């Protein structure tokens, strides 16, 4: 996948301060606040930074965590995963494979066969109708 590389100044011009904080500074939105938290119905969740298609709405479920949750990313190389040892925990960070934007984390307590829960900031996402 062709990567997108921009400076922080360029990102700041395109993103809201809240989006910049999450996508470019690995921030986390407050749980329960995301615009797309309770979004239902068909569509594709794309990266709010670059438009890369990340999650199909069919994989979205209510985890009760307060963040949009998915069982799997769209097939192919939509996201990258990285070991994250910040905050005294060992977690797996999920980033957009195209622009490197921080999306959230993946945890091994999901409801589907693969057992994964992609816990994603609503601020990192936009929903496109199908
Ligand atoms: Fe992106």
General description of the model:
The protein has a six-stranded antiparallel β-sheet with strand order 3-4-8-7-6-5, with no helix packed on it. It has a three-stranded antiparallel β-sheet with strand order 2-1-9, with no helix packed on it. The radius of gyration is 14 Å and the shape is globular. The mean pLDDT is 97. It is mainly β and 130 residues long. It has a single domain (8-128), classed as Peptide methionine sulfoxide reductase (Metal Binding Protein, Guanine Nucleotide Exchange Factor, Chain A, Beta Complex). The chain is 11% helix and 29% strand. The two termini are 23 Å apart. The protein has helices at residues 8-14, 17-23, and strands at 44-47, 53-56, 60-61, 69-70, 79-84, 91-96, 102-107, 117-120, 125-128. The site of fe (iii) ion has 8 residues, from loops.
């Amino acid at each position: 996948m062709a990567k997108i590389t921009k400076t922080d100044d360029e990102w700041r011009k395109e993103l809201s301060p809240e989006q910049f904080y999450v996508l470019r500074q690995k921030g986390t939105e407050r749980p329960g606040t995301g615009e797309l938290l309770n979004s239902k119905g068909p569509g594709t969740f794309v990266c709010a930074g670059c438009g890369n298609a990340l999650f199909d709405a069919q994989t979205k479920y209510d985890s009760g965590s307060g963040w949009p949750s998915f069982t799997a990313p769209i097939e192919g190389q939509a996201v990258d995963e990285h070991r994250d040892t910040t905050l005294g925990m060992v977690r797996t960070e999920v980033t957009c494979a195209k622009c490197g934007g921080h999306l959230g984390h993946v945890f091994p307590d999901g409801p589907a066969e693969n057992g994964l829960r992609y816990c994603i900031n609503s601020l990192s996402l936009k929903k496109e109708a199908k």
